[in-house]
Specification:
Layout lengths: L1 E3 L10 E5 L7 H17 L3 E7 L2 H5 L11 H10 L4 E6 L2 H4 L3 H12 L2 E7 L12 H11 L2 E5 L3 E2 L2 E2 L2 H9 L3 H8 L3 E8 L4 H4 L5 E3 L10 E8 L6 E8 L11 E6 L10 E11 L7 H21 L7
Parallel strand pairs: 1-4, 2-3, 2-5, 3-4, 5-6
Antiparallel strand pairs: 7-8, 9-10, 9-14, 10-13, 11-12, 11-14, 12-13
Length: about 325
């Protein structure tokens, strides 16, 4: 997949395009990308996704911005896995936000990307003041020579699939429900970095996975699997939080203790798949009390994996 950090002044080749934040790449996003791929195949044109960095709400209301489900790197890898051939990652600025809907259509969609067909969500709005909508795209498409279609809502058990619904499920600790909305277990990828070595001193060495997020979508202690080390999904117990027993004001850290595994993973890039929440994060009166709780967490994690059948997906 080709990744572009800007839109050219004039496109070299036409595209079939979709636009959105695509945070999490849930089942609704996947249905959109399947439609995009089908329309591109019909026209013999490349598939393209336009997305934004940072999330628009991180610019206008940073204190109210939602927790990221995926980092930019994770999102791009998921888009590529869905068959997207081009990703246009636009730096979201006040200047970009200030484009009128008419300017966005003319400068970006027509001249910059030569979009011959657009696939958008049924609630898609764009341009300054969110003045642009599907009806405007239809009118301008008929005049300027591009098609447009709206992708209707995807539901799971009567619930609308959305990034917000995934965030709510994760925040509530309902990991299995989040996995149904995503079509896979929720995961976080990152490089294994050096930490405070507290787990090792307590007898439970952990891989500390670097978090490149301002906010995380979930916290607590979880049964997880880890991929990226070899061809297996390795079982483990993970803690994601601010470690209140150690100190106040610490940044969130993702720590994973792999079951029956003892190898140096520093520098490795791994993916942690969250399968089941064991408990919330808590503050303990002593390191010995923390060690005893970790011992119980690891035992509960081992029991969780022992109860799973070989056909259970990771």
């Amino acid at each position: 997949m080709l990744v572009f950090r800007s839109v050219p002044e004039r496109a070299a080749t036409p595209t079939v395009l979709t636009i959105g934040n695509y945070d999490g790449l849930h089942l609704g996003h996947r249905a959109m990308l399947e439609r995009l791929t089908a329309r591109a195949r019909e026209r013999g044109l490349p598939t393209a996704v336009m997305t934004f960095e940072p999330h628009p709400r991180e610019l206008f209301a940073p204190d109210q911005a939602p927790a990221r489900l995926t980092s930019l790197r994770e999102k791009l890898l998921l888009l590529e896995a869905c068959g997207v051939e081009r990703a246009y990652v636009l730096h979201f600025t006040r200047q970009l936000a200030g484009l009128t809907a008419e300017q966005f259509i003319g400068d970006v969609l027509v001249r910059g990307l030569d979009a011959k067909h657009l696939v958008i969500g049924d609630d898609f709005r764009f341009g300054k003041g969110r003045a642009g909508d599907f009806a405007m795209l239809e009118r301008e498409g008929a005049r300027r020579g591009f098609g447009v279609e709206a992708m209707h809502t995807v539901e799971v058990d009567g619930e609308r699939v959305s990034s917000s619904a995934v965030r709510e499920a994760l925040a509530a600790g309902h990991l299995e429900h989040a996995a149904r909305l995503l079509g896979r277990p929720y995961s976080i990828s990152g490089r294994v970095v050096h930490g405070l070595k507290v787990g090792r001193r307590l007898g439970f060495p952990t891989a500390n996975v670097q978090l490149k997020r301002k906010r995380v979508a979930l916290s607590g202690v979880f049964a997880v699997t880890v991929s990226g080390i070899d061809k297996r999904h390795l079982p483990g117990a993970a803690s994601l939080g601010v470690r209140p027993t150690l100190a106040q004001g610490l940044k969130p850290m993702l720590e994973v203790h792999l079951l029956d595994f003892d190898r140096n993973l520093y520098g490795s890039h791994v993916t942690v798949h969250f399968l089941h929440k064991l408990r919330d994060e808590a503050k303990y009166e002593s390191m010995e009390a923390l060690r005893a709780q970790i011992d119980r967490d690891v035992a509960e994690t081992a029991a969780y994996f022992s109860a799973r059948t070989p056909t259970d997906s990771n």
